[in-house]
Q: What sequence folds into this?
């Protein structure tokens, strides 16, 4: 059993990063296939953002984040971006309860509510991504900048 735990410790951060990359890449790419479902969801919640160009912008951000995650670059910044993206969908529970709960009301979930609820886990994964990022992600450190005698840190 200890070897199973050791394997999990060794690969969990990479698997989290890569699986989040797959999810972001997939849902981001789908926004270019048909933005209509997201536009409809936005019309019921953030109506001022309910237009295809905004959805395409979200798709670009999600696909770019996925690429960075696959490359293992800027993990902390991507994690923060994801926290923002998933916060936006989670807010719909508060500002558009009819979308999340349907006619039956709380605690029942509509199909859209079930779709949105999974973002709670993705939000938590984004926080973990930030926390698990290697400390060597500091751009100055990657460029080889060293701390000087005056206490300037990279």
A:
């Amino acid at each position: 059993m200890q070897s199973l735990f050791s394997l999990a410790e060794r690969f969990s951060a990479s698997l989290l990063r890569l699986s989040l990359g797959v999810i972001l890449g997939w849902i981001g790419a789908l926004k270019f296939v048909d933005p209509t479902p997201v536009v409809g969801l936005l019309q019921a919640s953030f109506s001022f953002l309910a237009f295809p160009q905004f959805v395409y912008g979200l798709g670009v951000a999600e696909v770019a984040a996925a690429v960075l995650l696959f490359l293992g670059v800027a993990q902390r910044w991507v994690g923060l971006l994801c926290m923002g993206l998933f916060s936006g969908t989670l807010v719909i529970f508060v500002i558009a309860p009819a979308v999340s709960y349907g006619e039956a009301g709380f605690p029942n979930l509509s199909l859209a509510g079930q779709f949105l609820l999974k973002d709670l886990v993705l939000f938590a994964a984004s926080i973990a991504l930030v926390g698990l990022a290697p400390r060597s992600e500091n751009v100055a450190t990657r460029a080889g900048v060293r701390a000087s005698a005056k206490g300037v840190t990279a």
Observations:
- The CA atoms of residues 147 and 153 lie 5 Å apart.
- Confidence is low (pLDDT under 50) at residues 139-150.
- Residues 13-132 form one domain.
